[in-house]
């Protein structure tokens, strides 16, 4: 190899080395700028792919007084729903007819524990103003008994009020889950049931506990409007325990129409009866998702049975007997 060839080779090597050094310097400069902006390209990306808009939403119907145990339960559900893919929005409905300050208490609690829960407040006047025909059904259950209250009797109207005022503008949901505030789920993640394929992939209009005909002497049988009474003979009236429901958007719009037409009844029977009358699809909750108790009762036997869940006050982590897991329990009065 002659001298000129050696010079050419050496020059080429030096140029290549220089180029690499320049690239490294420039890369380091870029990394420094990105790091100053909080971006570290040397670490694996933790950015999650964007998810679609939520296709279901959970509404928890609270009564006039909501204690810390209820708020803790709602917070636990909300935390799990926020992690779901797609995420599930959580709402808490609060009746303000007889008490004040519940909204502020709930807001402070959820802010303290760091969860997002949307609040919906309503009172009897709001419901009657939107559905004046409801006053015709707002009667005594049986002679000599107390007058009914909207929040404890006509849940369908308050749900529709929430839908019209808070949800309808979005039109982003395919279905809506509704829980009572004294309902508990004994699994670690409520999403396991909300996105259970039997329910999530179902085209059912109504998911609820199995509908059965109302008893002949049902204590709530008189709490109906005249239009409802004319349309539904006794043998076409059904009811279910309404601690858990899932509505399709189609079904929600259907009961909205019937309520505006003046059809009203206790929500335990209204939902089932309307669905059967209009030949809509009703799917029962899976039997293995219903614990003991899952009843209307709030007596001491039910309360003592619920204590078997051994759920501590903080509701963050808890132990349950395996035979009691992944079930709904109702009612919880502690």
Description:
This protein is α/β, with parallel strands linked by helices and 334 residues long. The chain is 39% helix and 15% strand. It contains twelve helices and twelve strands. Strands 3-2-1-4-9-6-10 form a seven-stranded mixed sheet, sandwiched between helices. Helix 3 links the parallel strand 2 (89-95) and strand 3 (118-122). The longest helix is centred in the N-terminal third of the chain and has 34 residues, at 3-36. It is globular and about 110 Å long. It starts with a helix and ends with a strand. Residues 33-53, 140-146 and 310-320 have low confidence and may be disordered.
Structural class: alpha/beta
How much helix is in the residues? 25-40%
Rough outline: globular
Q: What Rg, in angstroms, do the CA atoms define?
A: 29 Å
Strand content: 5-15%
Strand order of the largest sheet: 3-2-1-4-9-6-10
Rounded mean pLDDT is 76
Report how far apart the termini are: 94 Å
Low-pLDDT parts are 33-53, 140-146, 310-320
Q: How many H/I helical runs?
A: 12
Major sheet: size, sense and barrel closure? 7 strands, mixed
- Per DSSP E runs of 2 or more residues, the count of β-strands stands at 12
Q: What series of H and E elements makes up the topology?
A: HEHEHEHHHEEHHEEHEEHHEEHE
In short, what is this structure?
By secondary structure, the protein is α/β, with parallel strands linked by helices. It has 12 helices and 12 strands. The longest helix has 34 residues, at 3-36.
Structural key phrases:
12 strands; 3-stranded mixed beta sheet; alpha/beta; 7-stranded mixed beta sheet; 39% helix; 334 residues
């Amino acid at each position: 190899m002659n001298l000129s060839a050696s010079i050419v080779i050496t020059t080429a090597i030096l140029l290549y080395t220089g180029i690499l050094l320049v690239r490294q310097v420039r890369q380091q400069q870029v990394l420094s700028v990105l790091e100053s902006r909080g971006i570290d390209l040397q670490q694996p990306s933790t950015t999650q792919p964007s998810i679609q808009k939520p296709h279901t939403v959970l509404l928890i119907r609270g009564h006039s007084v909501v204690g810390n145990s209820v708020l803790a339960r709602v917070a636990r559900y909300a935390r799990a729903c926020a992690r779901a893919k797609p995420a599930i929005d959580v709402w808490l409905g609060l009746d303000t007819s007889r008490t004040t300050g519940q909204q502020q208490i709930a807001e402070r609690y959820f802010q303290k524990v760091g969860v997002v829960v949307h609040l919906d407040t309503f009172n009897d006047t709001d419901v009657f103003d939107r559905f004046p025909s409801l006053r015709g059904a707002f009667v005594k259950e049986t002679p000599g008994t107390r007058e009914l209250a909207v929040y404890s009797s006509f849940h369908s109207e308050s749900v529709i009020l929430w839908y019209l005022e808070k949800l309808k503008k979005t039109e982003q949901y395919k279905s809506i889950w509704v829980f009572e505030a004294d309902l508990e789920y004994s699994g670690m993640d409520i999403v396991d049931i909300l996105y259970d394929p039997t329910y999530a992939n179902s085209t059912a209009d109504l998911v609820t506990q199995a509908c059965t005909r109302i008893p002949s002497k049902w204590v709530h049988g008189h709490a109906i409007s005249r239009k409802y009474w004319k349309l539904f003979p006794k043998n076409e009236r059904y009811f279910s325990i309404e601690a858990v429901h899932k509505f399709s958007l189609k079904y929600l719009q259907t009961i909205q129409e019937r309520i505006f037409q003046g059809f009203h009844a206790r929500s335990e029977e209204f939902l089932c009866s309307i669905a059967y009358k209009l030949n809509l699809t009703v799917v029962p909750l899976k039997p293995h998702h219903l614990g003991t108790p899952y009843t209307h009762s709030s007596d001491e036997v039910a309360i003592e049975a619920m204590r078997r869940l051994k759920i501590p006050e903080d509701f963050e982590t808890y132990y349950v007997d395996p035979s009691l897991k992944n079930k709904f329990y109702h009612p919880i009065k502690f």
